[in-house]
Design brief:
Elements: H1 4-14, H2 32-43, E1 55-64, H3 76-85, E2 90-96, H4 101-104, E3 108-110, E4 113-125, E5 135-141, H5 157-166, E6 170-174, E7 190-195, H6 196-202, H7 207-216, H8 222-230, H9 235-245, E8 251-255, E9 263-264, E10 267-268, H10 272-278, E11 280-286, H11 302-310, E12 314-317, E13 328-333, E14 339-342, E15 346-348, E16 353-369, E17 372-385, E18 390-400, E19 403-410, E20 413-416
Parallel strand pairs: 1-2, 2-4, 6-7, 7-8, 15-20
Antiparallel strand pairs: 1-11, 3-4, 4-5, 5-6, 9-10, 11-12, 12-19, 13-14, 13-16, 16-17, 16-18, 18-19, 18-20
Helix pairs in contact: 3-10, 7-8
Bound molecules: zinc ion.
Zinc ion (ZN) binds at residues 1, 63, 65, 94, 120, 257.
């Protein structure tokens, strides 16, 4: 949650003093032109792998605020326009909790985009000063009815998580590093493995350069300017995620935390159109429709989306780099055998079990088992014959000019005894 004032405070606090190399500030980044050329070259190699039978892929955004939140001024029209521009299939709006969400909030099908009702409820903050304190929250995704706070408008956390669950909605921990009482993770269905606002905050030393580029050369090069600032691996979140998935399915999602509330030099530094493009959540929803009828298949519904997320059939992708639609991660019965599990699924250990990840753009695959990288491969595909139980997940990076930049984070396939 970033207010304009906090953002500017932070930028000033890091200031020019941060350009001291030892602090890592003002680190060398390739030119805007070099990044643009590299992205164009990557995108020209796009070839989508064949889709997995029985599933339809949808692409959207989780964690966005409108003017029902105290820290956003975005109108519903602005939110929808940005969703339309980015051709999103779904958008989970998560305004800070107010009962008005249930009477005035966006919901349901709005043209081509399905708007799913969610809320964000603060779960308290860690100790520390304004710049070091972190505040966690829970995103309730797919909420049907208002939640009822206890006495003095205070939430009883146990009751809160239970009522989210009773409504069939998902509890996703946002800004998880701000969680004071980590025992609440046990109630949650998943967590943010990335959040744009958290990432910018972690990279305060780079903000002055961003503002400088922003002032000079923004209109034509917005994506290339923003990319080095926000396309980052969130190591802490990923390590925690790997810890939780060891014992149970725990969904990892990217949070856009879109606010459109940071104005500098007379324009928004964080317009919805940019936030919605930067990182997307892709889900595989079960299709009940025969392949031949796909063109007539009914679109996504809130129930289908929540079910797909709950099952962990999702991956996060920085589509600012390239469109990750078509990425697949599945378990096959033997090399070249039938698909027996997709990302998010649990599958029993068996002879011949082979994991196959395929990317629409050539990249660097990294396969992790129980949080430990066990295999790296460059190209369009990674295959791995499974020889032991474990939680297997895949990350894909793309080479942009001088370095591999994170691109895709897939939910795991759980190989159980
Ligand atoms: Zn938020």
């Amino acid at each position: 949650m970033w207010t304009r004032r906090r953002f500017i405070q932070a930028a000033l606090a890091s200031g020019l003093g941060a350009c001291v190399p030892v602090l890592g500030g003002c680190s060398r980044e390739p030119s805007v032109g070099a990044i643009r050329d590299a992205l164009a070259a990557l995108r020209s190699q796009q070839v989508r792998p064949p889709s997995v039978a029985g599933y339809v892929e949808f692409r959207g955004v989780v964690h966005a605020h409108s003017n029902l939140s105290h820290d956003s001024t975005g109108t519903p029209q602005e939110v929808l326009e940005a969703a339309r521009l980015n051709r999103l299939d779904f958008l989970v709006v998560t305004d800070h909790y107010t009962p008005r969400i249930f009477t005035e909030g966006l919901e349901g099908r709005q043209g081509a985009v399905l708007v799913v009702r969610g809320v964000e409820i603060a779960l308290g903050c860690t100790r520390g000063g304004a710049l070091t304190r972190r505040c966690a929250s829970v995103l309730a995704v797919g909420l049907r009815e208002p939640l009822v706070p206890g006495a003095n408008e205070q939430w009883d956390w146990d009751a809160l998580f239970q009522s989210i669950q009773r409504q069939g909605a998902l509890s996703i921990i946002a800004h998880p590093r701000g969680m004071m009482n980590s025992s609440y993770f046990r109630y949650a269905d998943g967590m943010e493995i990335y959040d744009i606002a958290d990432t910018v905050r972690d990279r305060l030393v780079d903000v002055p350069r961003f503002l400088l580029d922003f002032a000079v050369d923004y209109a034509d090069s917005r994506d290339e300017i923003v990319l080095p600032l926000i396309v980052e691996r969130s190591g802490w979140n990923l390590a925690e995620w790997d810890r939780f998935t060891k014992t149970r399915r725990f969904i990892g999602l990217a949070g856009n935390d879109a606010h459109q509330n940071l104005r500098a030099f007379g324009r928004y530094a964080d317009p919805y159109a940019l936030s919605f493009k930067a990182v997307n959540t892709h889900v595989l929803a079960a299709s009940e429709t025969a392949e031949s009828l796909k063109a007539f298949a009914p679109g996504l519904t809130t129930e289908k989306l929540v079910a797909a997320l709950r099952a962990g059939r999702a991956f996060a992708a920085f589509n600012l780099l390239a469109d990750a639609t078509g990425f697949r991660f599945a378990a096959h019965a033997g090399d070249g055998g039938a698909v027996i599990a997709v990302l998010g699924d649990e599958v029993p250990m068996q002879a011949g079990l082979t994991l196959v990840a395929q990317s629409p753009v050539p990249g660097l695959f990294e396969l992790l088992r129980d949080g430990v990288p066990i295999r790296r491969r460059e190209g369009r595909e990674l295959r791995h014959r499974v020889d032991r139980t474990g939680v297997y997940r895949v990350e894909v990076s793309l080479k942009v000019v001088d370095r591999w930049r994170p691109w895709i984070f897939a939910n795991p396939i759980y190989v159980r005894a």
